[in-house]
Amino acid sequence: MANEVTNKKNDTTPARFSDLGLSEPILRALKDMQFETCSPIQEKSLPHSLRGHDVLGKAQTGTGKTAAFLLAVFEDLLAQDESVERYAGEARALVIAPTRELVMQIAQDARKIGKYTNLTVHTVVGGMDFSKQLNKLHSDHVDILVATPGRLLDFCERREVFLDQIEVLVIDEADRMLDMGFIPQIKRIVRLAPMKENRQTLLFSATFSEDVLRLAEQWMIEPSLIDIAPESVATDTVEQTVYLVSSAEKLPMLCNLMDEPDVGSVIVFANRRDQCRRLHAALERKGVKAGLLTGDVAQNVRVRTLNAFKSGKTRVLVATDVAGRGIHIDGISHVVNYTLPEEPEDYVHRIGRTGRAGNTGIALSFACEDDAFLLPAIEELLGEKLTCTQPPEHWLKSN
Ligand code: AMP
């Protein structure tokens, strides 16, 4: 389906924005932002997206993916005839993102990049005053619309926003939107946009799960596939141990671990939401104050949960991979892999939550009969063997 893209440049000098043929107002804005050279996702995706191709990008937050798709959006809109008559609420480019905070961040970046253009950036997000957003939206023409799925559909259904003239459709953090259960809404949004032959589609996701690839196949035409390697692990600052246990021993182990004197703030990762919910409940029953972060947790609850963890009100955060990604909190003493991740790259993301900002961290993995088979792929990615051992006897006591 997709065209695998290899990096043809064999030198290591990153491409400069001034060499990409970007228009003058955009280059001027990038200069103000002090963006001179491309990040890897920008360098690999822009040659395709700037030529109007669909791009399927595997990249997480922090890689510069926002500018990567925004530059393609701006250049596309700047190249089209502006004199065509426009109606209120008729957007030319749409960016869909899973959370309000991400939408705000994308819109802020878009306003900086578009500073010297006449193109407008509007946002539509849930949890904020509907009529205020509507007034703003109708006060000016809409070039780039950045939105969360639910509220966008509300606007479309009320016929306040129209997507039938969309030239570029960007779907950001597709895996997180899947995890949050947004796909039915996004499917309806995509149906309101022009057919895939008549628009450019850019889709970004931190992982390429089968579900993500299936959606890409439905929504895109021969996308260029850009895969950015995961952030490298500072394994020298994270001490990693794998405990070989039975699945029944995992819960008592986690509870006993919390009584160890050197265990401060802990993130516990499990693969599934139901596992996370059960763990969270078990910890709370034991009197350990814990937060729960899964993809279906509402945005305002997520913010509260993270704040409680940051301030030390809760000691433990139980999270799925997708929900836990992008948590940048210093001072996390331990990461526990309650279940080993199916994607080796997720192991790297998980343990990277500790050992930050010059501190050392500890990553403990509980491997049992159901998930120990995932270890070799993780070791291969890390390029090293992990220490596997039996847990201390007193960790196995149920209480
Ligand atoms: P993102 O992954 O899009 O959230 O971007 C991560 C951060 O990198 C943001 O603060 C951007 O402003 C910044 N950034 C993106 N591209 C570049 C670039 N080419 N040079 C310098 N900073 C960048």
Task: List the ligand species.
Answer: adenosine monophosphate
Rg from C-alpha positions? 23 Å
* Weakly predicted, low-confidence segments: 5-11
Number of contiguous helices: 15
Overall average residue pLDDT: 89
- The helix/strand class is alpha/beta
CATH topology of the largest domain: Rossmann fold
| Helicity level | 25-40%
How does the overall form come out from the CA principal axes?
A: elongated
Largest sheet: 8 strands, parallel
Tell me briefly what this model is.
With 399 residues, the chain is of the alpha/beta class. The chain has helices at 24-32, 40-49, 65-79, 100-113, 130-138, 149-157, 174-179, 183-192, 210-219, 250-257, 273-285, 299-310, 321-324, 344-351, 375-382, and strands at residues 3-4, 55-58, 93-96, 121-124, 144-147, 168-171, 200-205, 224-227, 238-244, 265-269, 290-293, 316-319, 332-337, 361-367, 387-389.
